Amino acid sequence: MTETDNSRAAASKLASNQVLSFRLGEEIYGVDILAVKEIRGWAPVTRIPQSSDHVLGVLNLRGAIVPIMDLRRLFSLASAEFTPVTVVIVMSLATPTGQRECGIVVDAVSDVVDIPADSIRPTPALAGQANADFIAGLAQVEDRMLILLDAAELLGRELLSEKAEAA
To answer: Cβ of 60: how many Cβ atoms within 10 Å?
Structure first.
């Protein structure tokens, strides 16, 4: 597979070329804007006993119980204080069990970025790279590298494993 084929495959993981960019520490990430249902300020959640460390709890959003995950913990990054700019990105994802909602806590939302499909680069293969199939690709935005996440791959797996653990 050529580099062009790799970047096309990475771009095909995104349903659109518009991504919502957000910060975790010094890094900038992005998710397909079509997966984003809403952006909310941080609010305390109801903790679920014996849930994974990265699952902070659940929120009741207009009658729907939505699991809230800390992306820093999921990515094994250092913890940070929740500040007034800490937000929850609520996403609606297609999973094998149907449409599910999930929220991720991020340090701050940046903006919506248009990314041409031919500018998305595949993730380089690195020795010891642990299961990074949730990374849809990398793109240069201004002077920063944007890590594009495949939310359905990343959180869909998490939603299924949480359901399996509960059963």
So the answer is: 10
- DSSP string for 103-161: EEEESEEEEEEE--GGG-BPPPP-TT----TTEEEEEEETTEEEEEE-HHHHHHHHHHH
Tokens representing 65 are: 């119980």
Got the DSSP string for 38-62?
EEEE----BPPTT--TTEEEEEEET
Which of 92, 100, 107 has the alpha carbon at shortest distance from 42?
107
CA distance 43 to 5: 42
8 Å CB contact between 149 and 32: no
pLDDT in tens, 33-91: 999 999 999 989 999 998 888 899 999 998 889 999 999 998 889 988 898 899 999 99
Structural tokens at position 152: 């359905």
Separation between Cα atoms, residue 101 and residue 123, nearest integer Å: 27
| Domains of the chain by residue range | 3-166
3-166 to CATH, choices 1.20.1050.10, 3.40.50.300, 1.10.246.80, 2.40.50.180: 2.40.50.180
